[in-house]
Amino acid sequence: MKVIVAAGTPGFIGGGAAELAFSVDRALRAAGHEVELLWVPSYEITSTLLPQLAGLRMHDYSDEADHLIALRWPAHYLRHPRKTVWFLHEFRTLFDLAGYVGELGSLQPGDAARATLLARWERLVLDEARAVFSNSQVVADRARRSLGGFEMQVLEPPYPRAIPDPFPFAGGSHVVLLGRVAPIKRADLAIRAVAASPGDWTLTIAGVPDPPAFGVALQTLVDDLGVANRVNLRLDWISEDEKLELLERSALVLNLAFAEDSYSYVTYEGWAAGRPVITVSDSEGIAHAIAEAGGGLIAEPDPASLAAAITDLLADPVSAAAAGAAGRNWVTAHGTTWDDATARLLA
Amino acid sequence: MRSSERTYVATAFVPFRWRRVDAVAARLVAELRNSGIDAERLRLPVTMTEQGAAGSAAAASLVNLSWAHNVICLEFPCLHLVADRMSAFRVRGGLDDHLLRHDVVARPPASRFAPDLVEPGGAAGYSSVPACMPPGFLGLELRDRGVITDAADRLLIVSLHASCAPVAQEIADAAPAALVIQEHGGGMHHDDPETRLWQALDDLPPGPFQAVHVVVPATDNAAPLWVPELAGTDEAWTLVGSHGTRSVTDSTGDSRAAWSSFASGLLT
Fold it and tell me: Which residue in the set A11, A52, A59 is minimally distant from B40, CB to CB?
């Protein structure tokens, strides 16, 4: 079968959504299908949003492919009679992140009307799909609220690669925060937690700053707080091998993203390595997963609370190891396989 | 860390078909990255009926990429993108050719072109960019056709200009296994040697060939960019100047350097 896998992308930056697209591509090819990946530029500026979506609607791939799988927003605006949508999130600026100023900017005049129209369009393009899956219960719940009761089936993505062997838990005092270094991921909160903690634990932040100016701001924050001797900023893309090396040396993993859609791959990778994960209470999908798996702690989103949670867990390696093992168990036992996932996507 | 110069290399999205323009785009992205440029491919949805072409152009014109530093356009409808800085070249067989052949003219504003790459006029009133032959695409095509393999044992000589014929014949005489393709009738920039070359290659007997020697006018500036990859390795090619003033053999650099030069030329 010829399958187009389409996914929105902000461009020039990796992340969970791109990882998912590559995973779907690999799984479909392994199942014997021909696959083309189409990256659709995603739009952040609300004033030009609707015309760009109208442009996407001009394209119908009925003649070129047997099936279209739409992943990250706004790929599902493409047309195909056999279209399956794996919904990762809405246009967040106008929906679940409306009013969140940390990364996306404040709402613009006319955005309320755009949100109303966009909700109608979303229903239009989702209703024409053969099936609509969400990547988490959090996303399904959001869609039900914002799209007039629209129901999605939850299909949590399997681990993107072969699950690596866990690293023996050796305790220590090294904490890592991995992934895209964007304001919404709150690496700054982790740095402030270092400053708020009397302990001597150290923190490595590894990932691509997005935007680049945010990396500069983090360095300034480290200097201003006088914690340069405890914080290592590795602000660049890191390889899988480097990531595994960092995880092996770590005692625990931080994942502090605000209003995350799902458990997020960083949580998955930390748990696969056998490490506990600490998040904060407004991280939504991450906190939901940690509560379910028992794979770490949930602090409040302030430096003192986060520092206390980190210090407590580092001081109790038995509990830390147990939480890491619980997370590892969740990764290996939870959800579906890629064979099952692709079968459902093409059904 | 990579340069913050974010550059899109843009083509149309034509799924499930091997196209030279896609191979060129992939290679261009790789070389830009090797040069420290943060480059990515961008493939635009397109519908190639007359009505669909207009719609595709309109859809592309709604995509605002002003936040990217550069957009390099290889074919329709990418020149319709909204970008602050854009450069372009045409790849034989790309969708621009299809549009021109069918007189479906979706003409982008000339201001979207990088000024130094614009050639005014052109077929059907289309403001064409130079038909610049990018490095390596001929080599990719020959490899794709199985003409060139690592186990090659024959020699192919392609002569692209009437004035090259004597030199090509000299090579042929010196290499009994040589197969000579003579394609005369115009210079690289005066006619359409690429099309005639492809037609000739279609008639090739089965390869493989030990090396590919391409005979072009020594004054031609485009040739050194793409000739090195003809034989698939950096060593096994020869570029022969036909005006008798110089003979260039394995001296115009490796293919990496040629691509790098070509890529950086699009960004200056």
Answer: A11
B-chain residues within 8 Å CB-CB of A43?
64
Overall number of domains in chain B: 2
What pLDDT does B223 receive? 39
A41 has a chain B CB within 8 A of its CB: yes
ipTM of the complex: 0.79
CA dihedral A126, A128, A129, A135 (to 10 degrees): 10
pLDDT at A205 over 80: yes
Q: Is residue B267 part of a domain?
A: no
Question: Is residue B41 in some structural domain?
Answer: yes
Compute the distance between CA of residue A147 and CA of residue A89 in angstroms, rounded to an integer: 12
Q: Which residues of A touch B55 (CB under 8 A)?
A: 58
A29 contacts in chain B (CB < 8 Å): none
Phi/psi at A4 (5° precision)? -95, 125
pLDDT in tens, A62-121: 989 999 999 999 999 999 999 999 999 888 888 887 766 555 456 677 788 888 888 888
Fold of the A2-155 domain:
Rossmann fold (3.40.50)
Q: pTM for this structure?
A: 0.75
Tell me, what's the pLDDT at A15?
79
Cβ–Cβ gap B63/A41 under 8 Å? yes
B221 Cβ contact partners less than 8 Å away, ≥ 6 residues apart: none
Which chain B residues are Cβ-neighbours of A56 within 8 angstroms? 45, 59
Is A174-333 in CATH node 3.30.40.10? no
SS (H, E, C) B238-264: EEEECCCCCCCCCCCCCHHHHHHHHHH
Q: Which of A1, A12, A48 to mutate to test the interface with B (most CBs of B within 10 A)?
A: A12
Cβ proximity of A272 and A253 under 8 Å: no
A56 touches chain B (CB under 8 A): yes
User: Any idea where the domains of chain A sit in the sequence?
Assistant: 2-155, 174-333
B-chain residue closest to A207, CA distance? B1
Q: Which domain holds residue B44?
A: 6-132
